[in-house]
Amino acid sequence: MAPVTSTRSSLFDCFDAGDICLYGRNAKRIDGSSCFGSCFIYWLLSECGLCCLVHMSKRQALRQRFGLREDGDDCLVTTFCSSCVVCQEARELRFHSNSSSSVVVLQPKTIRMDQKFAPEETIK
Q1: How far apart are CA 82 and CA 23, in angstroms?
Q2: How far is it, in rounded angstroms, from Cα 62 to Cα 25?
Q3: Do the Cβ atoms of 28 and 34 come closer than 8 Å?
Q4: What is the pLDDT along the chain (124 residues), one digit of tens a residue?
Q5: d(C-alpha 62, C-alpha 68), whole Å
Q6: Residue 23: what are its φ and ψ, rounded to 5°?
Q7: Which residues of 91-105 are buried (b: 16+ CB within 10 A; e: fewer)?
Q8: Distance from the CA of 114 to the CA of which of 11, 16, 31, 122 falls in 20 to 30 A?
Q9: 73 three-class SS
Q10: The pTM of the whole model exceeds 0.70
């Protein structure tokens, strides 16, 4: 598990975002959930004011994945500030996808030309 750090953006930075319909895309990036299915369930539950029921677990998974401390009570922020929370999560995912890219360079295997190899066994 990663060390505990703060999020890279404030909960209320959502006012800087142009697209607030991000929950499905975030869910897909957090744990591979279906973008359409997540959007549909979120929309359905938000009509009843219960989107926090599915959103809390995604937020907790995001925090656990990147070792982030809790900004506030997940139940409260996903219930009363859901648009801001979704935008914050999108920014956090964008930050971690940009910062976690790494290049792996492998050294080629060295073969000595003066090595003698044992003859292959013949099949009898």
Answers
A1: 9
A2: 13
A3: yes
A4: 666 777 766 665 554 543 446 888 899 999 999 988 888 888 888 888 888 899 999 999 998 988 888 877 888 888 888 888 888 899 899 888 876 544 444 555 565 666 565 555 555 5
A5: 8
A6: -55, -45
A7: bbbeebeeeeeeeee
A8: 122
A9: coil
A10: no
The predicted structure's pLDDT at residue 26: 92
How many Cβ atoms from other residues are within 10 Å of residue 79's Cβ? 17
Place of tokens 């656990």: 64
Please provide the size of the chain in residues. 124
Euclidean distance between CA atoms 116 and 108, whole angstroms: 20
Single-letter amino acid, residue 35: C
Q: Which two tokens stand for residue 56?
A: 């809390």
CA distance 94 to 34: 19
pLDDT of residue 84: 84
Q: Which parts of the chain fold into alpha helices (H)? A: 23-31, 35-46, 52-66, 74-80, 82-99
| Site of tokens 């677990």 | 57
Tally of CB atoms within 10 A around 117: 5
User: HSE (CB half, 13 Å, CA atoms) of 9?
Assistant: 20
